[in-house]
Amino acid sequence: MEPIFVTGHLNPDTDSIVSAMAYAALQNALGNRQYMAARIGPVNDETQMTLDRFGFEAPVEIANVRTQVRDLEYDTPPILGSGLTIYSAWNVFETDTALSALPVADDAGFLQGVVTRGDIAAYDMDAFKNQRIQDVPLFNVLAALEGNVVNTPSTPQDTLSGDIVIALPRTAEDNFGITPGSIAFLGNQPDAFGKALEVGAACVILCQAEFATEMREKDPRLMAIYTPLDAYRAARMLHLSLPIKRILSAAKLITFRLDDYVDDVRRKVLENRFHSFPILDHHDNVVGTLSRYHLLNPRRKKVVLVDHNEMAQSVPGLEQAEIIAVIDHHRLADVQTMNPVYMRNEPVGSTNTIIGTMFQEKGLVPPKNLAALMAAAIVSDTVIFKSPTCTPQDVAMAERLARIGGVNLEEIGSAIFSASSEDKSPSELLFSDYKDFHIAGYNIGIGQVTTMDSAQVLTRRDQLLQLMRESSRENGLDMMLLMITDVLKEGTALIYIGDGKIIRQAFNVETHDHEAFLPGVVSRKKQVVPALSLLWG
Fold it and tell me: What is the tens place of the pLDDT at every residue in 184-201?
């Protein structure tokens, strides 16, 4: 069963992480066990503290949702053992006429090569010219000839080598065509049997002929094999008794792995003439084969987006995935879908408020620890209900979840926003809760730190501005902002890289040396982004 990834935005905050976990838990409780919470990027300190408090592990981290080989409906044909006879391999092709190539592996499952119908046919035709076999295991020979050894040769043999001779009646001078070391196919021909002994043949194969008393009395030192096949068919079958590994192509083998991306695979497939390519797992064992037609309509990874609906904030490779649902509380942005999807976007302060409502609608109560975690996420995203994004619905849902989880909302809020920023690097402060936006042709990055002591964060101001300059230049941003939101002051100290005139006009404040204070501004989504959008039209 392929997973359906439920994921929040890049640089996830607590609401984003918990939303993914809560929605996956809701679907799992409804019997949809394929839903799996995921995240894009590391867990910040606030979120980790909250997860630890209520006994949760962070969701699995995914790098992208690009289509991989494992997502294709690739073939899983039989995998031939390298010691299997050529004839047995041909029978596999005959059993399934749709097969054009088969992988060949050793006893440990490691790929040795690929054999095609054409390889076997070419070898069979070549056998008419090359009337010789070399070191063919005796077991293979007896199986191919449906025969058995009828005497006890003086020197036991485990393999068979030599020129193949069908000893037809001829003049005595040419010894029936039998040469030293050859493999002679005889009928009921005691005289030819005697010549085989005389010239030193390697083996005699009696085709539909018994090991006559006259032959036994010669006390032969060479091996004699009986077969119920006629001489012509027996000679052909002897050629086809070779192990399949003997005719594998010496050309460099092109393989793919389950984790390879289809974009990369497609280029390589188009550059090569092969019709079938082996697929290996991470143990280098063969798991299947891939052909060109498998690339025409690949199966896409399935994704649910929570707490965002903007491509720049989402998982890389989203354009190759199938979005099946969006649960969000932000403005509608640029995510597009191929088919109609379940969409739930509500003007509330936290995505967890929406998901808590969905639990109610389904008649389900979240487990105690999950309810407490969801309540903490609502407190975090609404800045203890002080954000302008907060609604009565958020407050009511947080209180309901807190009662189920047996927690105190004020105590949780104090614990979340009292976490010290002293030990965080400038990069952690800037990017722990960071989003990119594309507004009216402008590219802008906005980070946010929510704290109860903005002055302490501002002691790192020069370091933060230097990092912002470098990041803005590297990523081609028109502007970069860091909101240092103070819960107690109910406002935001804003430091920025870019045109200060934009800040002054958008927020009607004075700026000084790349810094401004925005009283009453605590929400990036509800206050900062809309103000810039309005300014830029």
Answer: 999 888 888 888 888 888
Looking at the predicted structure, is the pLDDT value of residue 175 above 80?
A: no
In this prediction the pTM is 0.70
The residues with which 80 forms a beta bridge, in sequence order, are 104
Looking at residue 168, what is its pLDDT? 75
Question: 419 exposed, middle or buried (CB, 10 Å; 0-12, 13-18, 19+)?
Answer: middle
Please state, as a whole number, how many other Cβ atoms lie within 10 Å of the Cβ of residue 317.
Answer: 19
CB 194 within 8 Å of CB 175: no
Q: Domain spans of the chain?
A: 4-67+301-417, 71-124+245-295, 426-536
Cβ atoms of residues 435 and 524 within 8 Å? yes
Q: What is the C-alpha separation between 278 and 92, in angstroms, rounded? A: 17
Confidence of residue 501 (pLDDT cuts 50, 70, 90): very high
Helix (H) or strand (E) holding 496: strand 491-497
| The pLDDT value given to residue 369 | 97
Cβ atoms 308, 328 nearer than 8 A = yes
At the second CATH level, the architecture of 4-67+301-417 is: Alpha-Beta Complex (3.90)
Beta strands in 248-393 (DSSP E): 256-257, 277-280, 286-290, 302-306, 322-328, 342-345
Bridge partner residues of 328 (DSSP): 345
* Separation CA 452–CA 446 (nearest Å): 20
Where does the pLDDT of residue 169 fall: very low under 50, low under 70, confident under 90, or very high at 90 and above? Answer: low
CATH code, residues 71-124+245-295: 3.10.580.10
Lowest mean pLDDT of 31-45, 99-113, 269-283, 417-431, name the range: 417-431
Q: At residue 527, does pLDDT exceed 60? A: yes
Residue/partner pairs of 524-529 with CB below 8 Å, 24 or more apart: 524/435, 524/446, 524/448, 524/483, 525/329, 525/330, 525/331, 525/389, 526/387, 526/388, 526/389, 527/388, 528/446, 528/481, 528/483, 529/331, 529/437, 529/439, 529/446
Residue 446 and residue 453: Cα distance in Å, rounded? 20
Distance of alpha carbon 212 from alpha carbon 199, whole angstroms: 20
Asked if CATH classification 3.10.310.20 holds for the domain at 426-536, the reply, yes or no, is yes
pLDDT digits (tens, 9 = 90+) for 199-222: 888 899 999 988 888 777 776 678
What is d(CA 509, CA 113) in angstroms, rounded to the nearest whole number? 71
Residue 245: what residue type? K
Tell me the residue ranges of DSSP E strands in 295-397.
302-306, 322-328, 342-345
- As a whole-number percent, the residues of the chain with pLDDT over 90 amount to 52
Find the angle CA(37)-CA(39)-CA(40) to the nearest 5 degrees.
155
3-state helix, strand, coil in the chain (%, to 5): 40, 25, 40
The number of residues in the chain equals 537
